[in-house]
Amino acid sequence: MTINQNQVAMETRKCMDCGDELRGRADKKFCSDQCRNNYNNRMRRDDNAIVRRVNNVLKNNYRILSSHNAAGKTTLQRDKLTDAGFNFKYFTSILHTKTHNTYYFCYDQGYMELENNFIMLVKKEKGR
What we know:
Blueprint: H1 3-10, H2 33-68, E1 73-77, H3 78-83, E2 93-96, E3 102-106, E4 109-113, E5 118-123
Antiparallel strand pairs: 1-5, 2-3, 3-4, 4-5
């Protein structure tokens, strides 16, 4: 045996998740699919938490808009949405109209801020 072969034989590779000794291919990093999944889930946990928080706010905003806009178009005071827990910082898209109005949408439910603390709720038509 050469020195390089002795070093390889003496090095024991460990699973990146559980630390068990690895057997098999030289490029193997995990002892099982479960360990591979555990490791990757742990590495993405922070990213997933951020996405989960944002999605929860968006779902809540959508639920609030839908519950206050059964007719497809209505006007109400801004406080009604705020009191229900609506977060005006989160939306999925913005629509600027030719008449210079700005609508903020949470999926197909949208709103436009009016004068005197009023909000107009709208529902985006299919195909638009």
